[in-house]
Each structure stands twice: as structure tokens, then as C-alpha cells.
Design a protein that fits this description.
Elements: H1 2-24, E1 35-43, E2 47-48, E3 62-63, E4 70-75, E5 81-87, E6 94-99, E7 102-111, H2 125-128, E8 132-134, E9 152-153, E10 156-158, E11 161-165, E12 171-172, E13 178-182, E14 184-192, E15 198-206, E16 208-209, E17 211-213, E18 235-236, E19 241-242, E20 247-255, E21 257-261, E22 281-288, E23 294-301, E24 310-313, E25 317-320, E26 335-339, E27 343-346, E28 351-355, E29 376-383, E30 390-394, E31 399-403, E32 411-419, E33 422-431, E34 440-443, E35 446-449, H3 465-468, E36 473-474, E37 494-495, E38 500-501, E39 507-510, H4 511-514, H5 523-528, E40 532-535, E41 574-575, E42 587-588, E43 599-604, E44 607-612, E45 616-617, E46 624-625, E47 631-639, E48 642-648, E49 653-660, E50 664-665, E51 670-671
């Protein structure tokens, strides 16, 4: 009996010791092989651009010190793979890891990358050193799984540890902590904008590489780059962050992007980017409340080791950029001033600001003196889906802020600024993830959008007219009319702010009876009623929406090459093409026996651009016609009482057809 009592006591002691050991060591079931080695793992600290260690306060949503999960990878002294282990929970700085016995083995630690980053790796150390994580959006930079603090964690990596593991016992190396360095850089931007009559409203980071290397690339130099080559398709921009004040601070974490130096720069004003390359920069966007022609004003700031020539963003480094914008100098290449427009693109889930001072630039003259006036209101004229957009007045910036609340919904809308119940001006809002400044095509010496204005998808030869058809426009008018449904018919349901309307939410009116006197004739009514299709009678008023009679037509509503007009319907930087933009050759025409049954395809310079044959809205009624048999695309060029358009059908690609200006045709924009 005494012997059994002794054995029970002995086993209790053993179990007690095992329990204490497990509190210190967090191991995965797959790592029972090997020798236990104890490490101390600690988060490192950022250095500033001069190499001085710095520690800023954690953001409310990000922890710089937390290590939530850990990968440990071991190679032989010659670079052969030995083993790896994953520790999903690290709740103490001391951790026991099992390693295989070997002399001068190479051991690496990676924290906050998640469970899949190395789950199938078994290659050599050389292969391992080239491993990367793919990024497509800002949140990919962080570890977004469950964390102890509830905050997002930063990915970290240690330098190589050279460790000899003996086969005859436990090794305690915790006296010399393994320091985990950040795989990202931190950019702090305190801003204080003192420029008069200016409101800062949006900030984002641009040119973020879509790749983040697990280990540390080479130290930044004046010539070496990492990633080795970047294009517009291998970088991305963060979404804009809306700000409501000219003073504040914002912080971003980004992967490293080492683009070298512009060694010839001598002043801060010359740090404007690198030709043909993609250095990371901060984009600050604001709006002037002066009654001028300026739309968005972009101010670019490039992080680096200095403010003059260095374009290297290096991991585990903190950069502080101070934005003190007090003026807009014409020689400051960091500033880009966009013109005003009648069409604005907003990505799903994002917002866009539309300066209302555009209303003061038409032939009707000044409509209101103070663009910040609290008496101005906004409303939805029509939208292609209920709740697609939400417009609100931001009087301090002189803008309408239009939000597309859904992160997935796409479509089109028209919003207006009003005084009382009178519409003073209206704008097309194109809700799409498409950025024509990134995705476009060059043909005949011009840069083209790859889709019709208002299309929610690029034409590929297989999608339907409601996806790639785009919107209809009367020649010279800025406001669109609804396109067609998937079968080429009338879209039956469109919405204003609160109610449903049928037949595309447009009205019709006879331009021969509604027009007023010279010099502007029907222009005031067309501006006040953007959803009214003013049809023209072909006998007596030359089929024009603008003038009620046979004279007084305005030939300068759309003009390419002489400066974009106030009525041009394309977004900022784009315009309606003029005569000579298309060529007569290289067209694959639609027919019932080809894959181009609903499209004409212009093939030039090795590029295919698709033109859906979605027909027209008829000059005398506004109703649909020719869907699936004809494609009609406006030029900005007029001739006599009519205007030129590109016409394609099953047998023709005619570049110089001309038609009545009250017709509703499509628009394909070209870069200014």
C-alpha cells in the first residue's frame, strides 16, 4: 500500500510539472519532434528616416507591439529546409519551440501573418527569402484575424538567427530576445492648411505596391529598387478618408516601396514623382470656394529620407510629413488643379465632392454669389437604384458631398443644386469601380475610355446592353438620359429621392413651344429640367432641343481641342471626341453569324474596343429605336443645323453621318 501511495504522489508531481511547462510553451501538435528551445520574442521599434529609434502612440485601432500568432522556420547551415511550426496564440514573451538538432542552423520568426502564409512551404532558404504576400486593398496590410487586444496587428519578421541545437537536451536562449521588426512603414501626416478660401476634404495614399515581402529587402540606395518594377496594374490606392477640418493628423501603414532618388533635385518643389515609376505618395484633396474654374486641388507629398530627392519607403521606418499649405504656386509641381466637370465618378462605398460653382459658368451667368451659402440645397433628380447615392450639402467647401453607401452597388444618378424649388445646375454621378485614368486604351493617337459614358462594365463582346450600353445624350447637353435594359428595351424603373417612376424617369417636351427668346432660347429650361427630353420637330426648328425656331442654334456647346466647354458631359480630364477621332478601317461589324452580334469592334494598334449597337432616342419623341441593329456615337463637331456621329450597323462603319441635335446618342470619352 505504501508503494502505491508513493507512485500516486509521484505521478501527481509529474502532471503538475507538465501543466506548468505548458503555460510557458505554446506549441502546435505537429511539432512534437525536435529539441525544445526557449526564446524571448519582443516587438521592435520604428526608426525615423534618419535612423533614430522612435516610438509613437498606438492608434486606437492598431497595436504596434502585439504578437498574436507566430511562425518559426528552420533551415540548415547550407539552406536546406528542416522544419516549421505555427503558434496560433502567443500570450507571453517567452515561448518554447521545438527545433531539429543541427550546427549553425538558420531560424526565422514571423509574427501576425496568419495561419496560411507558410502552411505549405517546404522549399530552400533561397526560395523562402523571396516569399511575398499579395495585397489588393489597405486592410491587407494588417493581420485582421482575432487578436488579444481586439486591434489590428502589424506583420513582423526577425532577422536570421544562427542557432546550434544539440541533440541531448533543452536550450534556453530567452536571455537574448528575438527582436521582431515591422514589415511595413508608418507615415504620419500632421496637416495645417492656412490657404484662404480653401477646404481640405479628402486624403489617401497612392502607389502602394500589391506585394509585401516577408523578409527584409536590401537597404535603400540611390539606384536599387524594390519591388524591382512597378506598373499601374501592380500598385493600388487606398480609399479616400473624408476630413472635415483643415487641421488634424492622419496615419497610414504601408509596405515598403523603394524607388531610389532623384539626385538632380535641389529644392522641395522638385519632389514631384519619378517619370515612368510609381513612388508612394500622400494625396490631399481640397476645394476653393472662390468663383473660379478650379475643381479639385490635389497636393502630393512623397515620404522618404528627405523632402527633396529621396523616394524610398523602407520597412520598420516612421516618416512624418507636415502639410502646411499656405498658397497654390504655379511653379509647385506637387499641386494639380483639375477643371470642373459635369460628370463625377465615385467608387461603391465611397464619396465624391462636387463644387457647385459650376452653375456660375454657363451662358446664364452668375446664379449665386456665395458658393458657401446655407440657402443652397441638393436633391436627387434620378438614380438607377433606390438608395444608390445620398447627396448632402457641404456648405463650408462649396460642394455637394455625394456618398454611394453600398460597397457593391453600381449604376448612375443625376443630382442637383437648388435654390428653393429651382434647379440651378445638375451633375451625372457615375457609381463604378472603374478609373479611366488607370484603365484605358490608346487608338489613333488618342487615349480612350474602354467603355461608354455611364456603362457599369467594359464591353467584352459577351455582356448585355444594360451593363455596357451606357447612357444617352442629346448633342450639346450635359445631362444624360437612361440607357436600355438587358434586352435593349426601356428600363422600367428608376428612382428619385423617395419614389419610383416608370419610363426611365424622364419627361418629354416640344422644343418648338417651350423655348424662350434669344440669346439662350431653351437653355434655361434644359438646365432647370435635366430629366426632360426636349424633342425637336424636324420641320421648322431643324430638330434641335436648343432653339424653338429655325435659327439661333448654338454651335459651341461641345467643342474638342479648343478647351473643354461648360456643357461637356465627360468627367474631368476627358471630353467628347471630335472629327477624325475614329478611323474608317479596322472595324469588325456585327451580324447574326459572328460573335459581334450586338457589338461593333474597332481593332487598331493591336487593341480591340467594343461599341454596343444600342440604338438611339428618337429626335421627335425621346422613345427608343434601332436597339440591336444600329450604334450611334456623338462627335463634338457639328455641321450646318446637325451634328456628326459615328454610325455602325451590320454592313457599315460610317464616320461622317450627321443627324438632328435632339437625337439621343451614346458618348465615348477621350482624354483631353
Amino acid at each position: 500500500m505504501k508503494r502505491y501511495g508513493f507512485l500516486i504522489a509521484f505521478m501527481a508531481i509529474i502532471l503538475s510539472l507538465a501543466s506548468c511547462s505548458q503555460e510557458l510553451a505554446v506549441t502546435s501538435p505537429a511539432e512534437e519532434d525536435g529539441i525544445p528551445v526557449r526564446f524571448s520574442v519582443v516587438a521592435g521599434t520604428m526608426k525615423n528616416a534618419s535612423g533614430v529609434v522612435t516610438k509613437s502612440a498606438d492608434l486606437p485601432t492598431v497595436s504596434e507591439s502585439e504578437i498574436t500568432n507566430l511562425w518559426v522556420v528552420q533551415f540548415s547551415s547550407t539552406g536546406a529546409y528542416m522544419k516549421s511550426s505555427y503558434h496560433p496564440t502567443v500570450n507571453a514573451s517567452v515561448i518554447d519551440v521545438r527545433l531539429l538538432a543541427g550546427s549553425n542552423t538558420h531560424v526565422y520568426f514571423f509574427a501576425n501573418w496568419g495561419d496560411s502564409i507558410l502552411s505549405s512551404f517546404s522549399g530552400t532558404e533561397t526560395t523562402f527569402s523571396a516569399l511575398t504576400k499579395t495585397l489588393t486593398k489597405e486592410s491587407d496590410v494588417y493581420y485582421n484575424g482575432t487578436t488579444l487586444s481586439g486591434k489590428k496587428n502589424l506583420p513582423m519578421a526577425s532577422a536570421m538567427q544562427t542557432i546550434t541545437v544539440l541533440s541531448n537536451g533543452y536550450v534556453d536562449l530567452s536571455a537574448s530576445p528575438v527582436v521582431m521588426n515591422y514589415a511595413v512603414a508608418r507615415i504620419d501626416l500632421p496637416y495645417n492648411i492656412t490657404l484662404p478660401n480653401f477646404a481640405l476634404r479628402r486624403i489617401r495614399v497612392c502607389n502602394i505596391p500589391k506585394v509585401m515581402e516577408l523578409g527584409a529587402p536590401a537597404v535603400a540606395t540611390t539606384t536599387a529598387t524594390y519591388p524591382s518594377a512597378l506598373t499601374s496594374s501592380t500598385v493600388f490606392n487606398t480609399n479616400y478618408t473624408d476630413v472635415s477640418s483643415n487641421t488634424g493628423t492622419i496615419t497610414y501603414y504601408v509596405p515598403e516601396n523603394q524607388r531610389g532618388q532623384a539626385t538632380s533635385n535641389t529644392t522641395e518643389l522638385q519632389k514631384t514623382g519619378l517619370s515612368g515609376d510609381y513612388p508612394t505618395y500622400i494625396d490631399l484633396v481640397g476645394y476653393t470656394t472662390l468663383n473660379d474654374s478650379r475643381g479639385e486641388i490635389h497636393y502630393r507629398m512623397y515620404p522618404g529620407a528627405d523632402v527633396i530627392k529621396d523616394y524610398n519607403v523602407v520597412r520598420s521606418t516612421q516618416y512624418t510629413l507636415t502639410a502646411n499649405l499656405a498658397g497654390v504656386s504655379p511653379i509647385d509641381g506637387r499641386i494639380t488643379q483639375l477643371s470642373l466637370a459635369n460628370s463625377y465618378i465615385v467608387a461603391p462605398g465611397q464619396s465624391v465632392y462636387i463644387p457647385v460653382k459650376r452653375a456660375n459658368q454657363s451662358d446664364l451667368g452668375i446664379r449665386f454669389l456665395d458658393v458657401t451659402s446655407g440657402s443652397l440645397t441638393t436633391s436627387i433628380v434620378w438614380q438607377s437604384a433606390s438608395g444608390l447615392v445620398t447627396p448632402t450639402m457641404d456648405n463650408a467647401s462649396g460642394c455637394i458631398k455625394v456618398t454611394a453607401p453600398s460597397a457593391t452597388a453600381t449604376g448612375n444618378a443625376v443630382v442637383a443644386v437648388k435654390s428653393g424649388s429651382t434647379i440651378l445646375w445638375s451633375w451625372h454621378v457615375w457609381v463604378t469601380g472603374y478609373d479611366p485614368n488607370v484603365t484605358n486604351m490608346t487608338q489613333n493617337g488618342l487615349v480612350w475610355m474602354d467603355r461608354n459614358l455611364g456603362a457599369i462594365a467594359a464591353c467584352t463582346g459577351s455582356n448585355t446592353f444594360d451593363q455596357c450600353g451606357g447612357l444617352f445624350y442629346q448633342w450639346g447637353r450635359k445631362d444624360p438620359f437612361p440607357g436600355v435594359n438587358s434586352s435593349g428595351g426601356e428600363t422600367s424603373t428608376y428612382y428619385n429621392g423617395s419614389t419610383t417612376a416608370t419610363n426611365g424617369l424622364y419627361a418629354t417636351a416640344n422644343a418648338t413651344t417651350t423655348g424662350t427668346s434669344a440669346p439662350n432660347y431653351n437653355l434655361p429650361l434644359a438646365i432647370q429640367n435635366p430629366s426632360t427630353f426636349y424633342y425637336g420637330v424636324t420641320s421648322g426648328n431643324n430638330g434641335d432641343w436648343y432653339t424653338p425656331g429655325s435659327s439661333g442654334q448654338n454651335n459651341n456647346l461641345w467643342v474638342m481641342g479648343l478647351g473643354k466647354t461648360v456643357y461637356d458631359p465627360c468627367p474631368a480630364g476627358w471630353e467628347v471626341p471630335g472629327i477624325g477621332s475614329w478611323t474608317s478601317s479596322s472595324w469588325n461589324l456585327p451580324s447574326a453569324t459572328t460573335s459581334y452580334s450586338n457589338y461593333a469592334v474597332w481593332t487598331l494598334g493591336g487593341v480591340n474596343s467594343y461599341y454596343p449597337i444600342t440604338g438611339q432616342r428618337v429626335v421627335g419623341t425621346g422613345s427608343l429605336d434601332w436597339q440591336g441593329s444600329h450604334g450611334c456615337y456623338w462627335y463634338s463637331t457639328n455641321t450646318g443645323v446637325r451634328a456628326y456621329f459615328l454610325y455602325v450597323d451590320s454592313g457599315n462603319a460610317n464616320l461622317l453621318y450627321f443627324e438632328y441635335r435632339a437625337q439621343g446618342f451614346k458618348v465615348r470619352c477621350v482624354k483631353e
